[in-house]
Design goal:
The complex is a heterodimer of chains A (750) and B (270). In chain A, 50% of the residues lie in helices and 14% in strands. Chain A is an alpha/beta fold and 750 residues long. In chain A, α12 packs parallel to α15 and α27 packs parallel to α28. The relative contact order of chain A is 0.05. In chain B, the strands form 3 sheets. Chain B has a 5-stranded parallel β-sheet with strand order 2-5-8-1-9. Chain B has a two-stranded antiparallel ribbon with strand order 3-4. Chain B is α/β, with parallel strands linked by helices and 270 residues long. Chain B is elongated, with a radius of gyration of 21 Å.
């Protein structure tokens, strides 16, 4: 209700006085009642007066009664809550009439008013930092968190409700978040969402199960009533997981006993529900309160008994068996199944989302292997590819049934023994890539040369030209590469916020560390001259002299307060092989680096690079030197994504040029990449390594310190040669990158 | 000074230190000792490296001289120096020289903290020469067969520019230490702190969860040592939650948000 003007208030008051007067209230009584009304604070006062006026039109005798009700209600309600309560009375007056309103106003016990107390809701964003750590601590997995209007998990992200305000106490609402986290963890670790990982338990019941691995998204559609099956499965899993959690997290489960009765109370009674619905709802209620509100269908009683018995020490495969049985029972009941509100804190099971996520992970894994296989295949030398390809097509051989082939980008490539051994050493190739000749009758295999030639990209005119070093001829190929500078397409994910949240504690520590770096004057000891005497050195020198030895010369300490004058350019690998973890780690690293550098005040620029062939070297600008670390830069960091190949030479040459134009005493070029430089033409093996090495040497000639961070499973023998003995660091676990990179930078520049 | 002289006795460990072998480390160390190969112990803090050294020194009945390295440690701090005493100069042995003379174990803890020019003085002792040249005195000491040099470092702290030089590393036999696995760790916590098995299990479970948070806000997970501290508090009658917060969570981090989250995890367990 909007605030009325003084005049309006006065008019309403006059009308009330008038009404009361008409009903023979004397002046004292009227003044007393007006005083009562005035004893309430705004905004409720205005409404109470209006309510009194409305009631006085019917009968003024109601006014004193109602005011005394309001008075006693105000003891248990805060002023805003009272306002809401009076509004409700108004609504009732409009819709139900005076009797209902009076009945409502008469209920002034704290318990009856509880519904009007606004609970101290906890929004997801408040709980998020704690939840993220809590979840990671419990699970040991790198789970992400997000909010949604449902609670569920797709095994990679746990979705929480955006707001939990079930209880007036904040602590209890936070407890609901924690319970949700614990149950989500358990669903992931206990195989709820992967159906136990054994396909046999599914095919035993469903001959027509379509896949050769268990997939929750393919499984549930086999039931005629999808919702019923999913909800029954939810119940079964809830009963199975609860004892597990009770053992693993006794403290949390004990606390949960404080909220269960209320959550049980929230469930509706079973009366009026269809038998099917009532059957499932009864399980929900049993889970929450070990009892039911109303009489469940007869089938329920033995089912719950069985379920409780089997919940002990059973695996997800057993759950499938139980599901089949319970589903059969439920199906025989009458009525339609209407899904009820989901179980609080256990959340929903969303087969579609789980299946989608697992599919994506599988796909990512597969493309990675595909890329690996492509890499493994030794590609022909440079010059040979430039010959006409007609000859090779003549050589095309028919498929030999006994041979094995690799299916790469839709083309068949023959798998020779050497290659096969290499692949097997790496743990084999998944089905689909490796095919038997017999399965591919009719198709022709293709030589890899042809495969690559078919993808030849037409040369693009323009761009900045750079030379390339050809180690075989010992000279440069003039204007060989064309480099294009683009602005990166901004990403939508809130990478910066997510990273800052994820590394919350670490970021603070990071800022502190870099702050120290900025100011810390360092005392250098044992100097030949300086501000103060180094006592240790002097005593030592004195003793040495007495012992007849020549004393040391460095007897002073000097305060070294050199000012920082550093410009650093980050060159980030955006090649296809960075897909997944590496890409994510790169982004996180950049966010942390930006935080650190902002604290420090060093100038920095960030560029991403990728490309395909010498004609298209794409350099993506994330942040240039004179650009501030603004929202647009943050969005561009989010937009860093895997693209094509890694032809490092031209990019290093370009970065050298950019750095050369910057005024700074120390210039650093930090390259972040995974594995060796490689383009899909002849730029690979020694050729790529030599060109990269040459480009880095050129940078060094310009007074730039190149430093390379390379992410690989194992240190490669070519690294020291390519980067120079001490100018690189190799990181075997990409997850360490964000933490390491800041440390590396700190060490490099102090 | 002779081996087993009175001076050496002060470094002797007379009572058996409690140590529960995690694998073959006792046998390995024993062989290294017999074949005079220096030993490098790697592992996170509080996982039992120092206790292991004490145990081995006791078992092999050798004196143990421990030096905690820091970046101001100079070569003369290790080898010895001339001091002026009442107008005269007196030579005072450093810990390394003492260990060589008494034929004991010299244990350089956190070796990476020492400056590189300091680390090199152990080189001639750590290869088959087994000598310690004392430049200032113009002497060369030959280490007796009983002498053994052991160094330790925590690869977790190690940064790019503060690494052990290859020339140092490659003189040693490297033994990797990690936190003991669940059952053993429970037993250790029970033995060291006197808590009941159930509490010990929960403490270990908590430690595991903090180790999951390594590099995600925590620099290190909780060490076995911290668990023992918490256990001791619990035995002394302090409430488990409070004990975990003060003995484990507090030492791990100063960050309030992180402490809050750790408190939630503790609350979920106890």
């Amino acid at each position: 209700m909007r605030q009325l003007s003084d005049k309006q208030v006065k008019d309403l008051r006059a009308a009330l006085i008038n009404n009361l007067g008409l009903d023979f209230f004397d002046e004292d009584e009227i003044n007393y009642l007006l005083g009562e009304i005035d004893s309430f604070e705004q905004p409720a006062r205005q409404k109470i007066q209006a309510l009194c006026l409305a009631l006085s039109s019917a009968s003024s005798s109601l006014v004193p009664r109602v005011l005394s009700h309001i008075k006693s209600a105000s003891n248990s309600l805060a002023i805003d809550d009272l306002d809401r309560w009076v509004s409700k009375a108004f609504d009732l007056l409009d819709s139900e009439g005076i009797d209902q309103t009076l009945a409502f106003l008469g209920k002034t016990h704290a318990a009856e008013l509880a519904a009007f107390v606004v609970p101290e809701g906890v929004p997801f964003r408040d709980a998020a930092p704690m939840l993220e750590t809590f979840l990671r601590g419990l699970s040991g997995l790198d789970l992400k968190i997000a909010d949604d209007h449902d609670q569920f998990t797709d095994t990679s992200t746990v979705y929480f409700l955006s707001l939990v305000n079930r209880f007036p106490e904040r602590a209890k609402n936070v407890l609901l978040y924690k319970l949700s986290a614990a149950y989500a963890c358990a669903q992931i670790s206990q195989g709820t969402l992967t159906l136990g990982g054994e396909v046999s338990s599914l095919t035993r019941h469903f001959k027509n199960y379509p896949l050769d691995y268990p997939d929750i998204g393919a499984f549930f559609p086999l039931f005629p009533d999808h919702d019923l099956a999913v909800d029954l499965y939810t119940v079964i899993e809830a009963f199975r997981i609860e004892p597990f959690l009770r053992k693993a997290l006794p403290g949390l489960m004990k606390q949960s006993e404080g909220v269960l009765p209320a959550l049980f109370g929230d469930r509706p009674g079973l009366e009026g529900l269809s038998e099917k619905t009532s059957f499932v709802e009864a399980f929900y209620q049993q889970f929450l309160g070990k009892s039911t509100r109303g009489v469940p269908p007869r089938a329920f009683t033995d089912s719950i008994h069985q379920l409780r018995l089997q919940a002990q020490d059973s695996g997800p495969e057993d759950s499938i068996d139980i599901l089949i049985r319970l589903y059969a029972k439920a199906e025989s009941l009458s009525g339609e199944y209407e899904p009820r509100p989901p179980l609080p804190f256990f959340g929903k099971i969303r087969p579609d989302r789980v299946s989608q996520m697992l599919g994506e992970l599988k796909q990512a894994h597969r493309s990675k292997l595909e890329a690996l296989v492509t890499k493994l295949i030794d590609l022909p030398e440079a010059g040979r590819r430039e010959r006409p390809l007609a000859k090779s097509s003549v050589e095309r051989q028919p498929i030999a049934p006994e041979k094995e082939y690799l299916l790469i980008r839709g083309a068949l490539v023959e798998l020779d023994k050497e290659l096969k051994d290499t692949i097997e050493k790496r743990g084999g190739v998944p089905g689909g890539i490796l095919v038997k000749g017999t399965e591919m009758g009719g198709r022709s295999p293709i030589s890899l040369t042809d495969l690559l030639a078919e993808e030849e990209v037409a040369g693009v005119e323009g761009g900045i030209k750079y030379d390339e070093w050809d180690y075989k001829r010992g000279g440069y190929k003039k204007d060989w590469c064309s480099l294009y500078e683009h602005d990166i397409h901004p990403g939508h994910e809130r990478v910066v916020e997510q990273t800052l949240r994820r590394y919350g504690g670490y970021v603070k520590e990071l800022r502190k560390k870099f702050e120290l770096l900025k100011r810390e004057p360092r005392t250098q000891r044992r100097q030949k001259d300086g501000d103060d005497i180094d006592l240790d050195a002097v005593i030592e020198a004195f003793s040495d002299a007495r012992a007849g030895l020549s004393p040391g010369e460095g007897l002073f300490t000097r305060l070294d307060r050199s000012e920082r004058n550093i410009a650093v350019l980050f060159l980030v690998d955006m090649s296809g092989s960075t897909e997944g973890w590496v890409n994510e780690a790169e982004k996180e690293s950049l966010v942390l680096m930006a935080e650190a550098l902002e604290t420090l005040g060093d100038r920095y620029a960030v560029y991403g690079f990728s490309g395909m062939t010498r004609n298209r070297c794409d350099l993506y600008r994330v942040k240039s030197f004179d650009e501030p670390y603004a929202e647009s830069v943050k969005r561009r960091i989010a937009g860093i994504e895997p693209k094509d190949y890694t032809r490092m030479g031209p990019f290093i040459r370009h970065a050298t040029k950019v750095l050369a134009s910057v005024e700074a005493r120390t210039k650093l070029l930090i390259t972040l990449s995974d594995g060796r430089p490689e383009d899909w033409d002849a730029y690979k093996g020694d050729y790529g390594i030599e060109d990269t090495r040459k480009a880095l040497l050129e940078a060094r000639e310009q007074g730039i310190h190149p430093f390379c961070i390379t992410i690989d499973k194992e240190a490669q023998s070519y690294l020291p040669h390519m980067y120079g003995e001490v100018n690189y660091i190799f990181i075997d676990d990409v997850r360490k990158l964000p933490n390491r990179i800041t440390e590396i930078y700190r060490r490099l520049t102090s | 000074m002779k081996i087993n002289s009175p001076k050496s006795r002060q470094y002797q460990i007379s009572e058996e230190p409690y140590y529960l072998p995690l694998g073959k480390e006792v046998e390995l160390f024993d062989s290294a000792y017999r074949h005079q190969i220096p030993v490098l112990l790697k592992g996170p803090t509080g996982c039992g490296k120092t206790r292991f050294m004490q145990y081995m020194a006791w078992k092999l009945k050798r004196p143990l001289i421990t030096v905690s390295c820091h970046d101001d440690l100079t070569a003369s701090d290790l080898v010895g120096r001339y001091l002026v005493r009442g107008g005269e100069t007196v030579w005072v042995d450093g810990p390394l020289t003492t260990a060589v003379k008494v034929g004991g174990f010299c244990y350089l803890d956190e070796i990476v903290e020492a400056r590189k020019d300091t680390t090199v003085v152990i080189h001639p002792l750590a290869d088959d020469r087994r000598i310690l040249p004392i430049e200032k005195k113009g002497e060369v000491l030959h280490a007796p067969p009983e002498f053994l040099i052991a160094i330790s470092y925590n690869p977790g702290y190690q940064s790019v520019l503060k690494d052990l030089k290859q020339s140092t590393r490659q003189r040693f036999l490297a033994m990797e230490f990690t936190y003991p696995h669940k059952e053993l760790e429970t037993e250790i916590v029970m033995h060291e702190s006197g808590v009941k098995e159930e509490i010990a299990k929960q403490l270990v479970s908590f430690a595991e969860k903090t180790r999951n948070l390594k590099d995600r806000g925590l620099t290190e997970g909780a060490s076995t040592r911290l668990l023992v501290h918490a256990g001791k508090l619990i035995t002394a009658g302090i409430e488990p939650r409070k004990a975990c917060e003060t003995a484990v969570a507090g030492p791990l981090t100063d960050d309030h948000e992180m402490l809050g989250s750790l408190a939630e995890i503790i609350g979920a367990l106890f």
